[in-house]
């Protein structure tokens, strides 16, 4: 009987693997995307708004004070500690109880954290709120990427990860531009927004609170939409729920046939691993009891650790870094806000070309743009147009490797431990984000007393980029190939 179930499960997996297009409703991509929109809104909403938070809540005397990046460092670090807790403790639960259920739990936690942020009245409560939010975000990103990889076609895992990632760029855009609108004084364009509200009245003191309140509302919308998501058929099969998995695959085939006319022939059968009794310990043994998965884990953790040092220093702290280097706060915020144009170009690029190159190849392309963009900002001086161009290139660069690396990480572990494996790599890697921003803040603070110069700005951006260079070298030299291969062949 068990042998028949295994054969049947293998047939269902093969039927999924022959579907060359997205087999579910595209509405579900939108539903997952709304969640990503909120999580990245939360990551980026602190970038511009934190200067106002520091002035009004933490009583910093000047918007260009080097104390602001110093205050920001522990906040980003604890947010990432929360991210790690969520990744390592909550994400693996989805390997036990399912992707769909945990996607709802993570959105609840993230929304509550954002609401707490809006109500925080001192530094300690602000830290706690960002930690709670990080717990939800860390778990959510791991489970969303796991889910996409399990239902996307073999030749489109990077493509559909990128499509959902497009929503994250919209969230980042919303977070940065709302911060500019609600928390900075009005300034003539292009040095700021002429209609910004953060210079007087209610928004001069509370614009940042409104930002986090909006985040809580977005989380509520994301939660309500996720009730309609189907479960991952691969997860159902791994738990022995063959009938439920087949119902979803039947639906996927019907949709594909309507669009394509007929489906390709079945590929060879791969017998999936059906877990009799699942636990977190079982998932850990799956990863660390297999030398191949251990090697992948080490490579991916190092890649994420150093890569996130660059990503989070720029994603959460670019405005504060620029202000410390002598840029007026509104101009610094505008430079960061314009930069998100480059971020939006990332999923458009990887949607069309992400599956054509090996995942690790994208790390090389990415770091070249990061270095170029940072140097342009450092050398721009008073040329605001050059600063804008540099920011667009910079945002394009430090984000370009992320969606394909999300795909790469999820592909690298088997279904029974996929969410756990992703969470371990991405979660532990996020330690680098906090380390990076604290290191750069300390670097700026120690050098700022000698005066801000072009050479200092070049040094700062080269240091920020160096972390990503190390990440790229590790990925390229030691990384494994996964593009356009069957998921159960890559990670049986």
TrEMBL record:
Keyword Cell membrane recorded: no
Stretch forming the signal peptide: none
InterPro entries assigned to the protein according to its UniProt record, in alphabetical order: MFS_dom, MFS_sugar_transport-like, MFS_trans_sf, Sugar_transporter_CS
UniProt KW keywords: Membrane, Transmembrane, Transmembrane helix, Transport
Name of the featured protein: MFS transporter
Organism: Sulfolobus tengchongensis
Residues that span the membrane, as ranges: 21-41, 68-90, 102-120, 126-148, 160-182, 210-229, 297-322, 334-354, 361-378, 384-402, 423-448, 454-478
Residue ranges annotated for the Major facilitator superfamily (MFS) profile domain, each copy included: 28-483
GO cellular component: membrane
Cell compartment(s), UniProt: Membrane
């Amino acid at each position: 009987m068990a042998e028949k179930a295994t054969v049947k499960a293998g047939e269902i997996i093969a039927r999924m693997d022959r579907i060359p297009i997205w087999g579910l409703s595209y509405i579900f991509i939108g539903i997952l995307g709304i969640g990503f929109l909120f999580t990245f809104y939360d990551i980026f909403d602190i970038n511009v708004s934190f200067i106002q938070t520091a002035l009004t809540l933490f009583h910093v005397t000047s918007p260009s004070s080097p104390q602001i990046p110093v205050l920001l460092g522990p906040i980003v670090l604890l947010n990432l500690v929360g991210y790690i807790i969520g990744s390592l403790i909550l994400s693996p639960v989805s390997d036990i109880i399912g992707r769909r259920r945990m996607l709802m739990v993570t959105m609840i936690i993230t929304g509550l954290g954002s609401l707490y942020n809006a109500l925080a009245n001192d530094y300690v409560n602000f830290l706690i709120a960002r930690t709670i939010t990080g717990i939800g975000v860390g778990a959510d990103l791991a489970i969303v990427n796991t889910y996409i990889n399990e239902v996307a076609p073999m030749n489109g895992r990077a493509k559909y990860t990128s499509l959902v990632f497009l929503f994250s760029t919209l969230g980042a855009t919303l977070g940065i531009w709302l911060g500019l609108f609600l928390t900075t004084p009005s300034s003539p364009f292009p040095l700021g927004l002429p209609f910004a509200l953060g210079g007087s009245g209610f928004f001069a003191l509370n614009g940042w609170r409104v930002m986090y309140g909006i985040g809580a509302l977005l989380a509520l919308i994301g939660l309500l939409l996720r009730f309609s998501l189907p479960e991952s058929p691969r997860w159902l099969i791994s738990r022995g729920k063959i009938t439920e998995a087949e119902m979803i695959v039947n639906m996927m085939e019907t949709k594909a046939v309507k669009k394509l006319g007929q489906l390709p022939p079945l590929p060879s059968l791969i017998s999936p691993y059906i877990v009799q009794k699942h636990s977190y310990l079982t998932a850990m043994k799956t990863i660390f009891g297999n030398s191949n998965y251990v090697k992948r884990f080490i490579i991916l953790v190092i890649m994420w650790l150093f890569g996130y040092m660059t990503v989070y220093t720029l994603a959460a702290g670019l405005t504060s870094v620029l202000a410390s280097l002598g840029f007026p706060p509104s101009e610094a915020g505008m430079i960061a806000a314009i930069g998100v144009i480059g971020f939006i170009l990332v999923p458009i690029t990887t949607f069309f070309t992400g599956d054509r190159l090996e995942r690790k190849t994208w790390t090389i392309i990415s770091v070249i743009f990061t270095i170029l963009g940072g140097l342009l900002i450092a050398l721009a001086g008073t040329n605001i147009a050059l600063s804008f161009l540099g920011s667009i290139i910079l945002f394009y660069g430090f984000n370009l490797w992320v969606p394909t690396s999300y795909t790469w990480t999820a592909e690298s572990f088997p279904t029974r431990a996929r969410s756990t494996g992703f969470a371990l790599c991405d979660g532990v890697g996020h330690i680098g984000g906090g380390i990076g921003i604290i290191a750069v803040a300390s670097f700026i603070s120690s050098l700022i007393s000698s005066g801000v110069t072009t050479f200092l700005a070049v040094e700062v951006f080269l240091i920020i980029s160096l972390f990503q260079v190390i990440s790229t070298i590790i990925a390229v030299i030691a990384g494994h190939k996964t593009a356009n291969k069957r998921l159960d062949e890559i990670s049986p």
